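Database export, one record per block. Field names are fixed; values are copied verbatim from the stored entry.
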Amino acid sequence: MAAVSYLYQETRLALEPSSSSYIVDIELPTTSPGRTQRQASKSAKATAKNDAARATTSAIYYRKHHTFPKGFLWRVLENDTVFSIRTADIYKPQKASDANLILNFHFPHQIVPTCVALCDPSDHDALSIFVLDTAGQLYSIFLRPDSFRKRSFAETGLGDACKVYQPNAFRNFKRPYRLAVVDNNQLVATLSDGGHIRFDRDGPHAPWRETFYNAKGWFRSLLGGRGDLDIKAAAAAVQTNLGLNNASFLFTVCLDHHLRIWNFNNGQILGAIDLLNAPRSPQETGKWQLDASQTNLIRIVGGTQGKRLCVTYSPIGTGEFKFWRLQSDDANFVDVNDAFPENKLIPIPPLFSDVWTLADFNIGERSGSNGYVMWLLWKNNMAYRVQELTFLEEELPDVWESHWQSVFSDTVLPTAPVSGPSDSTDPTEKWLEQIFYPGRFPKVTIEAALSAFEEAIGKRSDISSRSSQGLAESICSAIASTSSLNKTSSGDIDHEQFRTSSEMQWRKFYRILLELDKPRGEALALAYEPESGMPWVVCADSISAIRECSTLERICHNPNSAFEGSPDIPTLVTTGLNFVDGFSDSMMQICHSVLGADMYDETPKTYEERIQFFSDKAGFWRQISDEDCAQVTEAFGPNFNLVTTVLYDTMCGLFNETWNPQHPTEQPLTEFGRKIIVKALQDGAELQWQICFSQIIMLVHMEFEFDRPEDALHHTVEVGVVFNNLLVILKRLELLRWLANTQISTPLPKADKINSSFSGSPVVSKRQAEEYRVLTALEANVGHLLGLPESASISSVGMPSIITSIVVDLCAVRSDIELQPHYFQCGLLVRDRADLAVELTRFCNENPFSTYVQGRVHLALKDFAAAAKYFRKAAYGMSTPKAKSDRHSSGLLDETEWNLLYAGLPRYYAHIVALYEQQKAYSFVIDFARLALQFVNSKTEDVDSVRTELQCRLFSGAISTSQFELAHSTVVAIKDHALQHSCLRGLIQRMCDNLHNSELVNLTFPGLQGAVDGILAQHCQDAVDVITGVPYHQILYAWRIKRNDYRGAAAILLDRIQKLRQLGEGDQVTGDDILDTAVTRQYLMLINVLSCVEQKQAWITIESPPRPSKVGSGIDLGKRRVVTLADIRKEYQDELDRIAAIHNNQFGFAADDEMEIL
């Protein structure tokens, strides 16, 4: 066999759903007493949960008669007591809803893993599931497509959709071995005694009928079935009609190494052939007996009427395939001929020293040709490999030895992160990023690792209900509990010892996690969908999609193979990777840090200056040995003569391969399909990044590696242009890596919202269902742009090629899918993830809208000064009217906000003012409101309303920051009288409440003094508590004195005297003198202020306070009267006499008695 050739790449996808609300648990009924005790699923131990998530049997079934949902992934879980099924379609029709629900059917008894069969009814858009359990019960479950879309279909109970039948044979002595389905109303169960039972019914709701067939006769059949398997028991069975009407043939591969053909209509055996078409003596029966666990031994393909191709596999010895031509024109006869009797078609295992076992195989017809494609699955303990062979039937013997293609499987476990002095990321953060990398480890596995780690260190805690965030915190807590911060002998804190101890514990935890994760990757089955040509490897707790390698992947995986474009491309790519492979982790971090600064920052430097700067700052030449230099020189020749600008252009073209089908999004991707694309992109973008990064390093190295100046690389290669092209490619790959590796929480789509459960539901209750799902940023922002062409293109090109084309196109700089980071930032801001949005700033360009979005990002982060800088920078571009503006912001801007953009500077700044006002950043509200008012002029559309709105916001910001002079000037400038009066009232209220009385009195209020006086007077009139409340009377008194309104000041003093008397607080002594009270003080102020006017003007009018009338129950409203200065003096003297009389105990005995003043 030739050297291994990798044409395909494996993309492994975890099966953990994006939301726990997608999981629906359903309890099934039983007709047999006794129930299986489930310990794994009900145990509180995290390790048991991790084991329960791994399947013992799993496969993918594709419906034949209906298109969507078409593929179904089913798994047997939790000690064979749970049958789990979900859809596994990559794409869907236009306007079709995703079918994301995962249905977990809980069986009362254990399932027989080899007795599970699925069927696609031709007359109903549904899926039929048939399962036999260890109690001999046959379950028939009928599911509509909506069962995988709406929880209510399952939560209301299956009803007639689930029927349980107890076959009579299984009640006695028969034991089922395998179960196969013919159609929705016909099944066949092979038995351990070598016979089989045919189950027939007239419809989905009709009872089953049983028919027994046996190759040994009825008497020997009665004797068998009680112990071990009979050698004639069928390990595998396939039914076909060969395209003939009223014909039905059953092909069984039996344990005695024979292929038997049955007429399924009457139970007659039409023939029996050795699997290798060789004569066997009876004495060799034991030598050639198959292992009872073998199941995948026969496949039948073809669509020509009366003809089929049957492929069988004999696992005896090294294993051998046989191809049989089946032909019939009669329902009672099948002609079985060995297609290649002279050839031994022995599969060749992978070229490794380990022992490999063929675990599964599949074969299908190639679309649009008369050829076939064959897939093999090899296993060695937990490891597996996949091989592929494309062939024409007549050419098979010639290509069998040399044309096998392999699938590259990246089995290298992710290494533990290393932190260096140049790494800006905290070591703990790097460990968490490694552990919680999207799709790497499921939550249950991480919990199991944490449980094992805590048990090892003697710490126990309940982790059954931790969220993802709580899980990360728990890991950090457990790691931190094992290390202590000690002091050195000199008394200093020993940070190095603490770091080393923590690093050791992190690595211990990581090793535990890797060991628990290994069983998840055990291969269980190989699936193939002939219509799209898509192969899958179904594992215990994951699924691997097999896709074609991209050009760069083929070069990396097959470094010694010839490349059609240029024979020197593999040399250039592999030399760069090998050159950088010798760098230490710290040097790689330094190079990446320096290169990132040059890649993202705008710089006026020339290409040559940038290359020189990178070489000086990174200094990687310090770690390059002579051997490293020699390998580059050996690959490219003296003075690197092999390297040319054309060679680099050809290589850069491999990074820019685009995919442009006629209708690329004719059929949108499902959520499952988007996850496949994201995982493939993670792998593809990572490889391309490594290649591109290594090429930059090697280019800089070659530029400065010369003996004579005239031998420098830039004399033969346009180094600056190549350097810039590689930086552009690297920048897009960096963005894609960030999008594919960053997870965000998004609300569930409306179609996936959880419906209310009904009482009596068989659904296993959950404490709390998540109303959100966890997606990568790429799915959330770019997923809607991804799709597939029409079905005809998928069949002709093949799904493995299309998946790779989508990934390569996404990575290409010239891709039609534009990655505009500022739009991604908008989406993150809508989801309140400004912390993630700011990480995209380095990828953004400097167009006006992008600059404006940067301002919004910093505004959400409360960095108001930085936001203001971006808003001012974007002002001109965002305010200039545009004939047609793209109103796309991922929901960040509503229609009202869009109307303020591209509509002139006043409206733009008004929008910015509103944003700052929402954040209560009032100092910036003032700045931008002033700025906006500067640009308001007569040409401004609807100038009065714009100016008024800005003035209102300016006033609001001014009073919020206690800038009362600014608020005063703003109120004066407002032309809307009603609004002006409202703002004036608010200003006075704020200043009085905050005791800015003197500032209020000193403000001029041109044209508004009467309004101010009236507002204060109204407050005085409404005031009740004139002792401890806001001193409106004193403020108004000061206001009127300031403006020489002495009589008005006197009137407000007299009003305060009356309110003091009403409160009963007027007699309280305020000083050393008993006559010094609040009332007497007010009288003195009143006398003084009236003395400041002419004697003829020394009077005021007052209204007597209302008081009850003595006759009847009416109220005397009081009368207006004139009070002169003389009256005031007399009242003052009377008050003094009254106080003195009280202190001398001279007062009346009744309420109406007058005090007698002596």
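Remark 1: The chain has a mean pLDDT of 82.
Remark 2: The longest helix spans residues 671-703.
End of record.
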